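Batch manifest, entry 17 of 40.
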Amino acid sequence: MKKIVHIKSLILLLIAVGAMQCAKKYDDVEIDHQMVIDSIRPERGTANTPVRIYGRNFPEINSQATVFFNSKQGAIVGNSTNNVILTTVPNEAGTGNVSLKIGDKVISGPVFTYDYEAPIIASISPLTGIEGTEITINGSKFSTVAANNEVSINGIKATVTASSITQLKATLPYTKNGAVQVTANGVANIGAVFRFVPQIDNIDKNMAFEGDVVRLTGKYFDAGSTPLVAFNGVNAAIVSISSTTIDVRVPTSSNGNIMVTVDGINSNPIAFTYLRNIVANSLNQTSPILRTVFGIDGASVSIKGGSFGTDVSKIRVMVGTQNAQVTAVTDDNVTFTAPNFVSSQENTQQIKVFLQNVEASYPNGNLTFTYLEPTISSVTCSIVPMGGGLYNFIFNVNGNHFNATAPNANFELLIDGVKYGAAVNGNAAVITTTQFSSFIKNRYDIRVNNKWGSFILAFQRNVNIADFNYSSVNGVRTITITGDGFGSTIDQNRSVRVYRIQNGVKSYLNVQPAITWSDNQLVATFTDNYIDDLTYGVEVRVNNRMGTKEKFFNYFQVN
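Output type: structure tokens
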């Protein structure tokens, strides 16, 4: 057992010693801060040829380094990095090493071959454009014969349209960003980089929510190495890209322009509307929550919610299938006017609100507008004889919601299903009609219609008894009752009762059905025999109306 313990201790000691040695080894490693030139591209050219110097530990501030071609100073252009410096070849540099001087230290690199016969590119203008752009190349050693000059970008030839020893003109092809290369009399030289201007021709959605993917179509989207898409200045994530399309995800932004930037060159802007999720909580008030309102055509209604914006032209409100007129918008309130009611639709219609055709959410449930139906509160009727069997009837009907937006508009008044012309003043309507006696009844069905709905009332005239008298002729005992409101035989629910009062107690006589019945008089028979001096009374009931009359007879004898 002791032997095993000693072996374990030895193993642990060896591991510890090894770890200490490894730590010591790594502690002794030195970081290389030496500046080194690894390569140059291209390795040959002439005056003004752009050359990239590749290496490491370069100063990133241009003024801290000087470039030499065969001991002749070149110019550093663009922004240097830790491992790349862009420079141009000086005129008549000759063939020799490329070197960098930093402070008092000189680092030598590969040999650059100076082509004395190569064309010299002094300037190119313009350096941005699109396919078909004509560029002017100034320099020297060009051929006066246009066919002996070649201009290209990325190996794609341009069309040389004019040439002289010191100037070329060329129309550019469709390609990506790249250096302009000129070949004259078989010798090439490379000039400045030409950058194509990205173009947006179309967008599949000019309004969308954050996170939606929209597609841009156009040209030169992948012409350079650093494409960017910004929504009103906010960069967006590119989902996919080709030379003619970009799928991009909408960032959190605001209304404004979309712009594509490739290698620092901006495209044309295209308008875009950033949609927000609007919310419609209630109507006319926020607390308590009101989900439905009642009104008529032209009623003003407010939708309470959020994120509506302030642009009336971008808000749309629908009541049922109709667009309502939006009169005012704030970020949390939309005011609209109820549209004209369509008679074919239901009275209650759902209210919907849209921002740029995107519908709001309704967290408290659907919002509705109910068009008010008419009602009848009271009816009176007067009947005046005119002679010749004709009578003048005047019905006064009072109620609510008779009118639409103008007096008498969309209003109908019917009596027993027949429409009559009515004079309407607010919520009061008067029908005047001349009819024969057959029109006289105790009960009439009065209906009012407006375009929001209808209402029917079973109007009954009051039964009034003016007087009654007894008579007996040839053993037939009758009671004749006069008054008005008795109606006619058209009124089926009618009855007559006769009673006598003795010691404060009513005793009803056995009355037979009426012999005759008109609106102002009825005659009935009875069979009871009495000889007394008492108070007698009659009751006339028509539908739900009843009239009564009592009087004392000094001598009431029934034989």
